[in-house]
């Protein structure tokens, strides 16, 4: 029997937020806590996971966690890890089918957020699988977001890619 109550959600979310892979595995495999169980704030473990804990993210996804669950601001985990520059975690998400063309409440895709923060490696990973022509609610493409944030290297790379190949 799979367990699913707030206390279990709190324990699983706490372990995920700490990046405690051993405890996450124990809760999922031995105690059979449902990966979709929410904590007292209505968040799943995947929504509160330590962003740099790619192994914890992978474990949660292997147990059926949905990578595209959005919070009240429209942020899915892909938005958070792209904004913070956690490429390894983003790779795990995209390998498990995360939708990187899902806009947040401001209309931004994960690539907009990575571009605005200057995370070139993340932008390079996202560009081939993202709609780089998508405009957020401010009317900006990822190139324009990078320019507005003085992320010249990212803006130049995107512009070069747009000029030489179709990315979407």
UniProtKB/TrEMBL annotation:
<dbReference type="Pfam" id="PF00023">
    <property type="entry name" value="Ank"/>
</dbReference>
<dbReference type="GO" id="GO:0019899">
    <property type="term" value="F:enzyme binding"/>
</dbReference>
<dbReference type="InterPro" id="IPR050776">
    <property type="entry name" value="Ank_Repeat/CDKN_Inhibitor"/>
</dbReference>
<protein>
    <recommendedName>
        <fullName>Cyclin-dependent kinase 4 inhibitor D</fullName>
    </recommendedName>
</protein>
<dbReference type="Pfam" id="PF12796">
    <property type="entry name" value="Ank_2"/>
</dbReference>
<keyword id="KW-0040">ANK repeat</keyword>
<dbReference type="InterPro" id="IPR002110">
    <property type="entry name" value="Ankyrin_rpt"/>
</dbReference>
<keyword id="KW-0677">Repeat</keyword>
<dbReference type="GO" id="GO:1902807">
    <property type="term" value="P:negative regulation of cell cycle G1/S phase transition"/>
</dbReference>
<keyword id="KW-0963">Cytoplasm</keyword>
<keyword id="KW-0131">Cell cycle</keyword>
<comment type="similarity">
    <text>Belongs to the CDKN2 cyclin-dependent kinase inhibitor family.</text>
</comment>
<dbReference type="GO" id="GO:0005737">
    <property type="term" value="C:cytoplasm"/>
</dbReference>
<keyword id="KW-0539">Nucleus</keyword>
<dbReference type="GO" id="GO:0005634">
    <property type="term" value="C:nucleus"/>
</dbReference>
<comment type="function">
    <text>Interacts strongly with CDK4 and CDK6 and inhibits them.</text>
</comment>
<dbReference type="InterPro" id="IPR036770">
    <property type="entry name" value="Ankyrin_rpt-contain_sf"/>
</dbReference>
<keyword id="KW-0007">Acetylation</keyword>
<comment type="subunit">
    <text>Interacts with CDK6.</text>
</comment>
